[in-house]
């Protein structure tokens, strides 16, 4: 049960005592969104983030009852340039371990980080996204306020592209080390293919999960600062159906 619930602009914010209850509540909301989409139109399309912060949400969603996963198309939101799907830190590998090992969707569309022409791969993925509306986006917020790999230097709320190749900033790359995904910052790739802010914001419903004390400053900036690309996650406050789930640690300074 949430200990506090309020809105900041249009964004629904829910604070929980611990990470487990936060993840369970977020998973319940996401599951209901998928069930409703399937009932309404016979299928659903979902974008899922790839990070340790999303583990509880994904596990709860995969275990949720009465979701016809054979009717669900799954996208993820970013991938490192140059990494094959088999690399331990590749986001396709994360999706395989955390989601696809538990459920069998109609299709999983992976971003091919190892593609010889990353810009062409971005364009290919954008075409897949454009085939039909996205019903649900499950996302997090980075330590620098990013959503997907839209770091402050490259985020664009009016981006003409749905998917693009970006350079990762140093705070973002260090977070990958902090998360235990790479041994040191020199081993973190410098570029990635990411869904843009408009692509993420196009989802009918957004469920954002942000646990842990390392995210406290980013959560505060998201909710208390201006809506600006200096904190890309602040754009969530403009979405008509976005929910932010935080625990007491990530909510410590709001």
Describe this structure in words.
This protein is of the alpha/beta class. The protein has one domain: Rossmann fold (3-Layer(aba) Sandwich). The chain contains 7 helices and 11 strands. The chain has helices at 19-41, 55-63, 91-100, 118-129, 170-178, 197-201, 216-224, and strands at residues 2-8, 11-16, 44-48, 72-76, 78-80, 107-109, 136-139, 163-167, 191-195, 205-210, 242-247. The strands form 2 sheets. An 8-stranded mixed sheet has the order 1-2-11-10-7-3-4-6, with helices on both faces. Strands 5-9-8 form a 3-stranded antiparallel sheet. Helix 7 links the parallel strand 10 and strand 11. Helix 1 (19-41) crosses helix 2. The radius of gyration is 17 Å and the shape is globular. The mean pLDDT is 97.
Defining traits:
254 residues, alpha/beta, Rossmann fold, eight-stranded mixed beta sheet, three-stranded antiparallel beta sheet, 7 helices, 11 strands
Q: Strand percentage, roughly?
A: 15-25%
Write down the CATH class. Alpha Beta
| Averaged pLDDT | 97
Spans where pLDDT lies below 50 across 5 or more residues: none
**Largest sheet geometry:** 8 strands, mixed
Question: How widely separated are the two ends?
Answer: 19 Å
| Principal-axis shape | globular
Alpha-beta content class: alpha/beta
Count of folded domains: 1
CATH architecture grouping: 3-Layer(aba) Sandwich
